[in-house]
Amino acid sequence: MKNPVLKIAAVHDLSGFGRCSFSVILPTLSAMGHQVCPLPTASLSTHTGGYTGFVFRDLTPDMEGWWRHWQKEGVEFDAFYSGFLGNAEQIDITLDMIDSLPRDTLIFVDPVMGDDGVLYSTYTEEMREGMKRLVRCADVITPNITEAAFLLDKKPKSSYTEDELYEIARSLTELCSGDVVITGVESPDGVGAVWMGKDKKLCRYIHEKHEKSYPGTGDIFASVLLGKLLKGDSLDTSVKCACDFIYSVVGYSKQFDYPTREGVLLEARLSELID
After folding, report:
1. What is the pLDDT of residue 195?
2. Which of 165, 246, 157 is nearest to 210 (CA)?
3. Is 21 in contact with 59 (CB distance < 8 Å)?
4. With bands split at pLDDT 50, 70 and 90, how would you rate the model's confidence at 213?
5. Which among 104, 92, 101, 99 is positioned nearest to 37, based on CA atoms?
6. Is the pLDDT of residue 9 over 70?
7. What are phi and psi for residue 134, nearest 5 degrees?
8. Helix axes 235-253, 217-230, angle to 10 degrees
9. What distance in Å separates the CA atoms of residue 63 and residue 74, rounded to the nearest whole number?
10. Is the four-CA dihedral 112, 87, 75, 20 of positive or negative sign?
11. Distance separating alpha carbons of residues 105 and 206, to the nearest angstrom
């Protein structure tokens, strides 16, 4: 009998405290029945949202050796999941990894570049151009609305019309030649995601906006989306499931009095992802 567990090579950072990056990617995808194989790009004592004085270790020198060892051992992956990349060299290394994969591997890119209308302080113009090359290799990309604008060399705005969202999504499908899911899209009714597949139809799914926001929800959203796609669900179903889960876990977390910088109380809601 064939092993039912799918393997995902995940290239992302590792934060020791605070529910971000691998701290949420691993449990989320594991709960959905998938095996995550982490390839860390950096190691941090905490994530960078709301913390100062954190310890940071750049793991660029280890990335190629890590990947070569997996190849030597004959490890085969069903999906490749790219997240936080700390410099332009890491983007080039990630592109080389993708080039070495079989053509039928699902390439999933979360272009972690910025939020709230600005690029992250670590991001350079060279990295932005490199990220454009990376998303061209992707079957699915999940930029937030800020990252979507920067990928298209546009200045981010606080709000967008339906026509503007359509044009952004359409342009991104041409850039990546795959499916585009844009998160953090606000409307008078709330906040959610818009997406576009090969049919060039713009779809939207919105929830009422919670009064609290937490770091790490983008990583959780992308992980649920990838997990559902690997189970064979449609793009529409997968996006809606990811949105619903974020709405659920934020709604649960906001009941409790603790620093929002610690992220959502993911552990208490993982059972919702188990088939």
Report:
1. 98
2. 246
3. no
4. very high
5. 101
6. yes
7. -70, -45
8. 140
9. 17
10. negative
11. 30
Q: Tokens in use for 264?
A: 């959502």
* Per-residue pLDDT at 2 exceeds 80: no
- The total number of residues written for the chain in this structure: 275
Any domain includes 118: yes
Output the pLDDT for position 184: 94
Assigned domain for 86 exists: yes
> What's the one-letter identity of residue 247?
Y
In a domain, 273, yes or no: no
**Tell me, what's the pLDDT at 120?**
87
- C-beta separation of 27 from 15 below 8 A: no
- Averaged over 244-272, what is the pLDDT? 97
Number of neighbours of residue 17 by Cβ within 10 angstroms: 15
- By the 8 A CB rule, do 257 and 213 touch? no
Domain range spanning residue 152? 7-267
With beta carbons less than 8 A apart as the criterion, state whether 132 and 154 touch: no
**AA letter at 242:** A
Say if residues 167 and 149 touch (Cβ distance below 8 Å).
Answer: no
Residue 173, phi then psi, degrees to nearest 5: -65, -30
Pairing of strands 79-82, 202-207: unpaired
Q: Give the number of domains in the chain.
A: 1
Q: For residue 115, which amino acid is it?
A: D
Tokens of 76: 């085969």
CB 269 within 8 A of CB 217: no
Side chain identity, residue 201: K
- The whole-number pLDDT of residue 216 equals 95
We report the CATH number of the domain holding residue 78 as 3.40.1190.20
Section 245-258 average pLDDT: 97
Query: Is residue 63 situated within a structural domain?
Result: yes
